[in-house]
Each structure stands twice: as C-alpha cells, then as structure tokens.
Fold these 2 entries.
Entry 1:
Amino acid sequence: MQKRATFRNLWLASAFIAPQLLLVFVFFYWPTAQAAYWAVTLEPAFGGGNQFVGLENFRAVFADANYWASVGASLLFAVGCTAVAVGAALVLALFADRGLRGHRLYRFTFFLPYAVPAAAVGLTFRFIFSPDAGLLAGINHVVPGLWNPALDGNDAFVLVLLGQSWKMIGYNFVFLLAALQNLPRTTIEAAAMDGAGVLRRMWDLQVPLLTPTLFFLLMVNITDSFVDSFALIDVTTHGGPARATMLMVYKIYLDGFESKDYSLAAAQSMVLMALIIGLTVIQFRVVERRVHYR
Amino acid sequence: MIERTPLVNLLTHLVLVGGLLVLLLPVYVVVVAASHDLVAVNQVPMPLLPGHHLWENLAVAWQKGNFRNVMLTSVIVAGLVAAGKVGLSAISAYSIVYFDYRLRMVFFWIIFATLMLPLEVRIVPTYAVAANALEPFQALFDLSGLSVTLPRWNLLNSYSGLVLPLVATATGTFLYRQFFMTIPDELAEAAKMDGAGAFRFFKDVILPLSVTNMAALGTIMFVYAWNQYLWPLLVVTDQNYATASMELGRLVPSAYGEAPVWNTAMAGTLIVMAPPLAVVVVLQRWFVRGLVAVEK
C-alpha cells in the first residue's frame, strides 16, 4: 500500500492536501458534529444558548408513531427498489452477455436512465401514472377510480418505487455486465461441454459467481434509495397522500426546514447516518474479502 | 462458443427487446407528450405517436421556466464542479500516494470516511454552514480562547455555495488513488534519478498519464452536479442562481393542486434531461469507465 519511491517535499505535500481537508472539514465534519450537538440539545423558545437534554430528542423521535411509519416506508421502499432494480438488471445483463446480434445497442441504451436527473424522472413518472392523463389513465375509464396516486397511498408508493428502480436499473446493468465479462470463459465452456444449457449455466454458474457484485449492488441500491429519493418524492407526492411515501430523508427535510425543529431533525439525521455507516461498513468488509481472494 | 440454441436465442431476444422498450418508454412518452397541444395530451388514452407542436411547446416551456438563465447557471455550476473535482482530487491523491509523512493514512481515512456522510443526511447543519462558511473556524477560535473575529462568508445565493459542497466529496480522490497505485514505481524512481522534484514529476509524468481518468471523472461529475436537486433548492432563493433541475420542480403545481399543463411540463422535462443524456451518449466510454472505477 506504499510506494517504493516517495518524495520528501513536505511543503508541496501539505499544499496539495490542504484544500480538500479544509473543504471536508467545513462541509462534512463540522455539520456532522453540529448535527450531533443539536441532537442532544434543545434551543429554548425565547432565545439563549442551547440546553443539554441528553437523549430526550431521540426519545421524542422514537415515541412518534409517524417516525416509525416513515422508517417502515423507507425500509419497504429500499427492499422494493433493490429487488426490482437489481433483479431486472441481472436478467438483462445475463442475456446481453450472450453477445447475440444487437448486444452493442443494448449495452449502449440500458444505462441511459441513470443519467436522467431525478427531478425529471419524477415528473415523467408522475405524468405516465397520473389518474387523468398519460399512459395508465385508461384503467380509470374501465374501472373508475381504480388508479389515483394523489389519493391512494399504495398507488403513490408504487409510482415512486418504479421511478427510483427505473433510474437504478441502468446503473446495476453496467456493473453486472462488467462482472459477467470478467468471469473466466473456461469455466463456462467446461460447463457447456458437460451438457449444461444456457439457462442452467446462468442460474447455477454465472449467478453464484456474481454474488460479490450482487452484494455490492444490494448495498449501493439500499443506500441510494434512502438518500437519493428526495427529488423524486418532492416532485411527485410530497410524502403523501396521508404520509404513505414519507421516507426518512423527506421527513428530516420537512421537520428541519418547514417546522424549523433542528433538534428533532438532527436526531433523525443521526439515526439515518448510523444506518448508512452500518451499511457501508458491511459493504467494505465484504468487498475487502473479495479483493483478498483474487 | 458456438451453440445451436434457437429457442433460448428467441427468449434472449424477447427479453432484451422487452427491456429496451420498458427502459426507453418513459423517455419516449416525454417526447410524445411534449409534442402535442393541450387537448391532445390530456386525451385518454394518450396519443402514441408524436404530434407537431414540439417546438412551440419547447419555446413555451423555455420561456415559462426561465431556462435561458437557468441552463446557463447549470452549465456553469456543473462545469465548475467537474473541473474543481478533477483538479482537487488529483492533487490530494498525489499528496497521499507519493509523499511519505506520518499523517498520510490519517488524511486518507478522513477524506475517505466522508463517503458515509451523504449530503442529504447532514442537510440542515450543512445549510447552517453555508450561511457562514467561516463559522467552523470562528467556533474553533472561540473554543481555544483566541479573540479573533473572522468576517462572515455567506455562501447562500452564490456559485461558491452551489459548487463547493459538491466538490468536497471523496469519490474523485479515491479514484485517483486507485489509479496512482497502479503506476509502476520505476517511473518515480527514474524521475528522481534524473533529478526531477515532486512538482515536476506531477506535472510532466502523472498528469499526462491521468488524462483518461480525468475525462472519466469529469464526465461523471458533470452529470452528478447537473442532476443535483436538494442542495440548490436550499441554497438558492435568488432566481438568478436557480439551476435547471430545481427549476423543474417549480414548473408544475404541487401534487395536490390542479393538474399540470402536461405538454409544456414534459417539454421542460425534455430540456432538463437533454444535456446530461447528451454528455453520456457522446462520452459513454468515459462515463461507464469512471462509474465502474469509482466504486471498485
């Protein structure tokens, strides 16, 4: 992990590292420390310094049924998006990897959705799934009132879930295809010689060999669904109807910026942060192990 | 490998074409909806072929969303983020990899650990910092008992505010570090033997070698910055600094109001998604390479 030939010019070394360290301190560590501070203090209603209240804010957060509802929604959202986005990308990558006619076109187009801004994804899906125009509105002509994301929580949830998944399929596809192409051809050919058909080889050979990549994508997709869903929710459902799509990030935003309750928002931030740190640590432990095996 | 598997081949084509249709359908719907007049776009079922009003809808959306200013701001911000990131991470990774000092690995972990603290999570306090970027230092001075009074440096409604927090992330530093580790040691040894100093080696050897990585990172960061939504929404209250993505949210009434004017809304969506899509289509090779490399 260390270069054999290094330089000793410490002035240059410090000058080169200083800008990033300063930025990281100002925009990452200071705000994080601030959030931790706010999470254990309360600002008095009539001015004055913050008062230390210990875990009171966390207690208030955990006692709130709305909070647990948002945790539940976030988890369901994470599981749903990850299943759809990783599953669909896996099927597409396995088939695209066969290299039949046109596979270059697929490689080129499948990841394009990832470049679309989340706000644009949100607006697009809002139109496609809107109850009185767009693609799905036809259902309401057959069975009136069957589909309405503005009134029905489940419909709204499906809408944001599909939007987020659509965006991530392309991302997952890139990684899975790259991993598939790195698999040893000889193993696959040996299996073919033994009479394993295409589908059997996919299921019994390629998918198991992909587990490290799949696991990595699992973690990335879960984290992304926690964090990156903000724009999607903000242009589609605003957390509604009746809090059905109130994910944790969106609730933090509302509590912090609409209700101006920094302490409550900070306590929730700390919980979400712990979740994300946990996921990242798990991910790195597994990735580390994979690197050692090679 | 040559196999005769006509049935599975058929299945393969069906799955891939199906996937292609599903993945491109939303974009196609946007184009179709953006090309009809208001009556046609609100028909149920919606028209499946593009109409003839694309340009006038684009023009209306362009006007309504103030896209002339907004697109310019977005291009500037995304360009600055990409350039800043490419430069900043190159030098900090160089410092971490090619110098021998005790805090090297500490600095690496300090930078690296920020990957676990996405902006959305620490959004409220980061906003507070943006109101005065020198406040952390002021607080440190106050703590240490020094009576220094720093000026305020307000980042709200400024390019620095839009750009700096996005430049601070660790992805680029990590990418460069991985790359620098693969550069053979002999290069640095030869350079030292020839009497080149650290800066000379960086300028004449490392930078030319890194061009590919820079292109990859630049592409990704441009798209990443362009697609930012939450941060611009917070730091910008002055319309002069609005970015394209956040403007899109304002182009339509909220979810529970009246239905949006869909044809112009979709035209706006098209305008906003076009630049990142174009960048990715043209620079596809760099984008994919960078994406895979950053996460390795």
Entry 2:
Amino acid sequence: MSWPMIAKTLRDLRWTSFWYALGLVIYIVFLSSFYPTLERQREQFEQLFRQYPEFLFRVFGIDPERAMMTSFAGFMHAETFGFIWPATALIFVVLSGAAVVAQEIERGTAEFWLSVPVSRARLLLSKQVALLTSILFVVLTSTAALALGSQAFGGELTARGLVQLTIALTSFLVSFAGLATLASAIASERSKAAGLVGGVILLMYLTWVVAGLTEDVRWLRYLSLLTAYDPLAAMLGELPWYKPALHLIVGLGAGIGALVVFSRRDIVS
Amino acid sequence: MTAPPIAVEQLTRSYDSQRGVIDLTFTVQPGEIFGFLGPNGAGKTTTIRVLMGFLRPTSGRARVFGLDCWTESTEIKKHVGYVPGDVRLWENMTGVQFLDFLCAFRQHIDPAWRRKLLERFQVELDKRIKHLSRGNRQKLALVQALLHDPLLLILDEPTSGLDPLMQHEFLTFLREERDRGKTIFLSSHQLSEVERVADRVGIIREGRLVAVLTVEELKRRRTRPMELVFAQPVDPQRFADLPGVRVLSVQDDGRRIELGVQDELPALLRRLADLPVIDMIYAPPDLESVFLTYYQAETIPPTREEAAS
C-alpha cells in the first residue's frame, strides 16, 4: 500500500464524494418525509399501484410480487433504493473507477506517478482503497440519512436492517467499482473505460428487467449482477448472505484483474 | 554500482502497425552526459519509455544499472530522476503540493538540496499549476526529477518551454551534476543544445540508431548553413576549392548563395574578404545537416533555383 497515493486519490475524490453523498442524503430524507402521508392512506395507494402494468414496476426495480408499499422499507425501496439510489451511486462509482488509470494516462499525468519507486500494482491498489473509502462514505451517509428519516417520520427499521442495507449497498457498489477499475486498467481514455462499464450495466439492467417479465426467460436473471441487489430484503433484515458475497467476489475478482492487467500493460498516452 | 547506467542491446519496440525503434544498441557510461538526438518521431520517447519501464520491449534488452527495465523497474526508479517529453501536471495542485506528493514516495530528501534547487530554478510554488506558464510547469517537472539527487537522470527534451536564460542555467546545472559523478541521458531534437552539454551523442532516425559519436566527432561531421548576399553576381566556383565548404544553392544569378560549412571558417572568411558581401547569415548547426553526412543522397534539400555542381 502506498499512503501518499491513497491520500492524493482521496483528495481528488473528496468533492465528488461529498456532492453525491449530499444529494443522496437530501433525497432520502425528503422521500422519508412522505411516509406518514402514505401510511395514513396505505390502502388507497396499494390499490392505485396495483392497477399499473407490471412492466412499469420492473423498470424501476420493484418486484410487485413482494411487499411494495406496506412498510417503510417497502416504501423506501420503491422510491429510492430500488432505482434512484443505485443509478446515482453507480454514476459516481463508474466515473470515479474509470478515472483511476485511464484518465491519468489520457491526461499524461501517469508518467509522474509511474516514475516513483513503487510497483504499479501497489499504486493501483492504493487508488482502489481510496475509491473503496469513498464508496463507504457515500453508503454510510445514505444509511445514516435513512436511519434519521426512519426515526423522524415513524418508519420501522431495525439496526439489523440498517447493517444489512449497508452491506448490500457497499457490496453492490464494490462489484461495479471493480469492473470500472478493470476497464480503466485496460483503456487509455476515461470515456472509453466508463462507456465500457456503462454498456455492461445497461445490458445487465435490460436483462434483469426482461427476466422479471416472463417465466420463459427467467434464467436470464443469472446473467445480471442486479439480481443479487436486494435492498428490500436487507432493510427487512432478511438479506441472504450469498447476494452480497456474490457482489464482493465479482468486485474483488475484477479489482485483482485490474492489478494484473495494469502491471503488464504498456503505458502509451 | 558496477554495471553501466544504461545498456541497450538490440532493442526493438514496435507498435501494432507502426515503427517504434529497431535494433538499438548503445551503452551510457557512468558520469557522462549522453545526448540522444533525433527529429520528432524518430523514436527517442519510445526508447525512454522502455528505459522507464512504461513499455515492454518487443525484442532485445534494456538495462539500467544492470537491472532489467521491464521486470525490475521499481528498483531502477530508486536511482532515476525522470522528466517526460510532454509535461502535463495535475492542474488543481499547487507547485508545492506537486513536489510534496512526489517527494512522499522517496526516502532521504535533503531539505537544503530542495531549497537550493527551488532557488536556482526560481520555481513558483504557491500558485495552482493551471495558472502557471509552460516554462514554470517545465521547471516544476525538472525539480521533481532532481529532488532525490538521483544517480541517473533521464530527460526527454527537458528544455522545451524554458526561456533562453533558464535553458542556459539548466544546461550549466547539468554539467555541474555530471562533474559530481551523475549520469545524464538527455534527448533532444536541437543539435546546438546537445553540442553545448553532451560528451557523447547517439543519433536516431526513423527508429534506427544512425551513429554514436563524441561531440568533437559530431562537430567535424555536421555542416552549418551560411547564406551570403552579394552586391554583384558571384561565380559559385569561387568556393569550389575551399575545404569543408559546399555550395547548397545559388539564386539571383549569383547574388545570393547558400553554403554548407564544416568548421573550416578561416579560409572561407579570407575568401569572403575579397568578395562584395553585403549580408551574411551564419545559422546554428541543425540536425538535418548531420543526417546529410549519413544520408546525403536521400536528404539533400531541394535547391530553390539551381544547385551548383
């Protein structure tokens, strides 16, 4: 590990992390404030939502077969953690992850930090550790905001639910951060690395939506990392261990792949 | 360290469909300034990137202090200071943040040495890099390469962007470093710069090493262009018998003559004293004139009017 590189990368990421975290915190607290209204008119809302086509729910990450608006967890899942939160956090992770190597090669700054007596693998690992720290910051501020919203607006969330949500959100972002750093280690332009991972995410999302619509192609869900993303189960304290484990395995595998690729590649800006 | 600072053996590095460098072999001795001279795109930066472990050789070997440049580059970098050819820095850092960041990877940075470098090169430390001129950015890049007082400096066109005074100061500094026992590998496309500072010169053209020679040999081989303007037409044959002088072009019926001069000035000046010279431009030596020596048939510039025989 290289502390100077960790410190520099954290410094580079500090404002980006801050603004993404702040945006998500405001959104979570704002949405939580609607929960008392929903609770008072729960039955009417339920009936109204049941009339919408299933496709619409699937697009926004809601499984209509499971609890939807019957609890604070279901409400926050439908309104925040099912779609808006992962979409926003993924933009942060993909852009930041894609920058770790490719952007520095593109801008010509890589030649300076690659001329220091530290191996490429250690330098990139340090950048990955800094990115992980930023991910934890974004996740912890979001779960803290959720705990605050739950307390303030009568939601019923347990400590177990919050811990499991933290694990689910972190592992989910780690998986795509790993893929983003792998793409960044391969590419020489940030836009190419981000575009590659963005394309993969879009494919996984479409696969996941289609797999939820009909039994015939149900097997497609195994091709998408989004299948293992289950914030509702996490908030209810029922998160199966294998789901975050799968995300972590993919993230760590891709992260190690990034170290290997970066150690062996040519640096041509 | 007993191994030579740089030893390159039959090094070839090619890109997908492009030429990089082909079959380079040369050695840089301890305590010398080795100028690596070639036009843009000749392969200087590719060679330097191989030495720094940024590029893997396609074939052949490159060693620094006996260590392999690809597999042992981390160890090599303890002893090397490097300035890239195209200096691009982190725009949002200040100069002092930039230097502190790169210093943090090194052990034993002498504060007195750091102060001396900063004073000598008058580096702007407090402004953000995005507000610095090109010359000031270049000075920051130079200072970061020198801060850990390395045994070997690998400098890719280090004076580009510096004003003439600072260029002179930097080249003087390099000679002082050489006298302190440091080895310097300096790439340039400016013949005059390399002549001023280097002990030996490697000349690269289209990816191949054309020659490795001392600066004295280089000076004997290259020509300097001299443009003469006369009040009346002059027969170019008046220069035919002078040693080391060639007529490159004749214009305006002999009122304007361009010569190539190979350090044989006294005889030429005596001859010119007898001629109606009204103007004279004696340009610094250029790289092309060196290549003329090696590739005369290929590279003689086309004459503007008619070439004298």
